[in-house]
Amino acid sequence: MTVPPDPSVHPLDHLALRGKADAPALVLKDQVLSFDGLNQRVGQLAAWLAAQPGAAPGARVASWVGKGLLACLMPLAAVRAGLVHVPINPLLRRAQAAHILADSGAKLLLANAGRLETLEPGDLARALAHDEAGVAALLDVFDPLPPSSAEPESLAAILYTSGSTGKPKGVMLSQANLWLGAISVAHYLALEPDDRVLAVLPLAFDYGQNQLLSAWAAGACVVPLDYLMARDVVRAVARHQITTLAAVPPLWIQLVQAPWADGAGDSLRRLTNSGGALTLDLVGKLRGLFPGAALCHVYGLTEAFRSTFLDPALIDTHPTSIGKAIPFAEVLVVNDAGGEAASDEEGELVHAGPLVAQGYWQDAARTAERFRPAPPFSAMGGMAVWSGDRVWRDGLGLLHFVGRRDAMIKTSGNRVSPQEVEEAALATGLVAEVVALGLPDDALGQAIHLVCRAVPGAMPDSAALRAAMARDVPAFMLPQAVHWRDALPLSPNGKHDRAALYHALTSAR
What we know:
Number of helices: 14
Mean pLDDT: 92
CATH superfamily of the largest domain: ANL, N-terminal domain
């Protein structure tokens, strides 16, 4: 583990003080905030929050907003006011937002007028709702609160997972979790004060929120972007001379298919990928399109933030590896007997160290399932996240993702990784996007179904796809059925919505 410089933990809102006073910290549609301006606005919003009824220390305050001023200030302003931030993805609908409000016990809700109008009687639970535009207009009335002196282990945020296997559950993150996560990422990405980070991912998720926090930890500038099409991202990269872009595989696929004008991506220094594996084909296309940018593949889970990072120098020779532990993390591979897995032996990825979250909000049962003491051979010890993800470590110490234990397809007595099937389908060059699912089958236990989008200009051809895949995978890994779509649904965090596809296919049978 490489320990970055200055690992000391400060209250999270001190990130607004990390950059040069007059350097740009945040570029919005209608304004640019320097670090001095960022700190002032954080303090003013904190003062407004602290003045609201019900804003007792530790009270939860929710935000259901797009990537405007308040969305960017809230992670720091809430903790400066002594509150706990509960961001709600703006892509979520009324029922999902109502669940998060009720489950978190939020006392305040900031949202735009349109979202507030969708709420029905009882949805707010105990929360008082405020229109974000009205709040932003009031900030200059308040004298800013000074930086806080909160304890590192105090609760800072509750981030709700997408809930693909049930209702969203809240992951409790401390000041130290978020501070050290920001310092870790800023260090291993080698962010500099002159970097400009395009924040395209949802700020309600750990990977998205860290776009803000790690940039400010490095004294760098963030440009938030709510985009509709890949071309919006292309334009923003060129207009703002973006140096750092983080995305998930579905967006990378769209970006490599989008037209880039000559020189449009020349400013990019680094691309970071999470939320799914990069395929050999996609790595090649990204390297060809952005030859001057380092391609960084990372792996993580909300319960422990980031876990691993692949050195960009190894992406060409080990394009599918998830790398090694990031600073402040210890990543272990535990075999099925409970011992430390040997090289090339598959096991469960277990994450220990100070990035491990504090558990699930008001859910002791699920907390006990996932958060358990680190195995005896752990160097850091303490509480660890037992991820349920299956990985193996090669002779160089690099980790390779196999799949989730509960996502493995069990067909004809064989355990099949959906990721391996998807990689085989993509390698044929016949599909641009694909999701592999195991559907109940009386004879096989589970039958493999593929949901695919054909490459642009190609006609869907299930027989040709199966024949091409058969050259690389055994018969039991071939799909029993292929379903073609013009577009694949995405979950609120930008990943392929496997739960929605599974429900659609099983309902149609």
